[in-house]
Amino acid sequence: MTARQSLSTVGLLGGGVIGAGWAARFLLNGINVRIYDVDPQAERKVGEVLALARRAYAKMLLAPLPAAGTLTFVDSPEAAVAGVDFVQESAPERLDLKQQLLAQASRAAAPHVVFGSSTSGLLPTQLQAHMEHPERLVVGHPFNPVYLLPLIEVCGGDRTSAATRERARAVYSAVGMRPLLLRKEIDGFVADRLMEALWREALWLVNDGVATAEEIDDAIRFGAGLRWSFMGTFLVYRIAGGEAGMRHFMAQFGPALKWPWTKLMDVPEITPDLLDRLVAQSDAQAGGKSIRQLEALRDDCLVAVMQGLRQVGFGAGETLAAYERSLFSGATPPPARIDAPIEVQRRHIPADWTDYNGHTNDSRYMQLSSEAMDEFFRSIGFNAGYLASGRSFYTVESHVRYLGESKAGDEIVVTAQVVQLGEKRVHLHSVMARPDGTPVATAEHLYLHVDTALKKSSPLGAELLQALAPIAAAHAKLPRPAGSGRYVGQSVK
């Protein structure tokens, strides 16, 4: 059983910015969520974050997501952890509050259930001090937005067991994250210590009138930040050392570390004047955009960067590609009913699918239909194991009709109908429609079954025929799909 399969329900303690992000990541991976939060606005806020996450995933992922989990709000920590498979705590950063919440919840959760804490700096040894079965707690420190950024710092305390660390690593990996397992406890862990150093320097630059908040951000986003997104710090500096590598870089620039540039050991006093300047500059930088608009912009930029990195298989793109492979390789359930065209996919049109008219580009309908038909094939058992046996389908002919228009953000439902099933070939017809059933486009594909080693056509495997034959028989009783078999230029009748 995989980690994702062992996760039916997750309990969340806290539904603020981080807790809502966790809810979105788990829900969109098909995991039920029980969430406890004292904020009377929590349900609205979590719903808005979930909408942002759905929007981002629709833009980012090629792989189909499983059916979303169910979200339940409960009125106590005990109710949040009852019967769950994993717990993630994301309460405010107060040691006494977190200790009390974890102690209370740990008395109600099953003894084997692992707890992760989202704290950004509190030590796990302190957090587990009053828990029942304290060996099952780790820090699982994520980064905002939790549903997009893959990094998760995993840190155990004095009493954390090796099995707990491994369970946490497996859970976080199963929902598309990149766990960083810390070797020892340290205040602020790794990433926050690095960010804190940059933050101190940035505050001094504003305080001393050297640069504005926007200018400092520009120095990051147009310069080093672009490199950091895929190479971090040390690999960048190794390259800067040229052919001689890191040793040459340190010999050339190491002495500069002793120069009195930094104010890392000193922090500017946050006076009313400095605070007013920071707030005014931040407001100006936002340009009147609401927090949700800024979050959507942030998500769009992160999606674009990670998709670009996916193309070269490096950095966060490598993690995204691995996550998509896990989604593609997941078992797709067989059709629930076969007496009508089978719904195989629902997805929203990504922004980068549109053309100069703002409408979905012609080629994307072929892509949409092709990926949906792949999903249909997976539902009848055409999986990684079948491919590994040296058998596959090759597309030998396709045809698309354009019936309407769609634009970025529109939801499209794709159905599949078997037009003809032969010993060595399958003819499928798909309709791409709005949720109300209005067709936007249709496509049909002729697939030839092949022996990939011999590069020759071959009969379908018995296991696929067993699944396909009843579908083909049922669909043979349906009216032939409108437009099926038409050629380009044929008059519409």
Describe it for me?
- It is a single chain.
- The protein has 493 residues and is α/β, with parallel strands linked by helices.
- The protein folds into three domains: 9-189, Rossmann fold, CATH 3.40.50; 194-288, N-(1-d-carboxylethyl)-l-norvaline Dehydrogenase, domain 2 (Orthogonal Bundle); 332-476, Thiol Ester Dehydrase, Chain A (Roll).
- 42% of the residues lie in helices and 18% in strands.
- It has an eight-stranded mixed sheet, with helices on both faces.
Top keywords for this entry?
single chain; 493 residues; Rossmann fold; Thiol Ester Dehydrase, Chain A; 3 domains; 8-stranded mixed beta sheet; 6-stranded antiparallel beta sheet
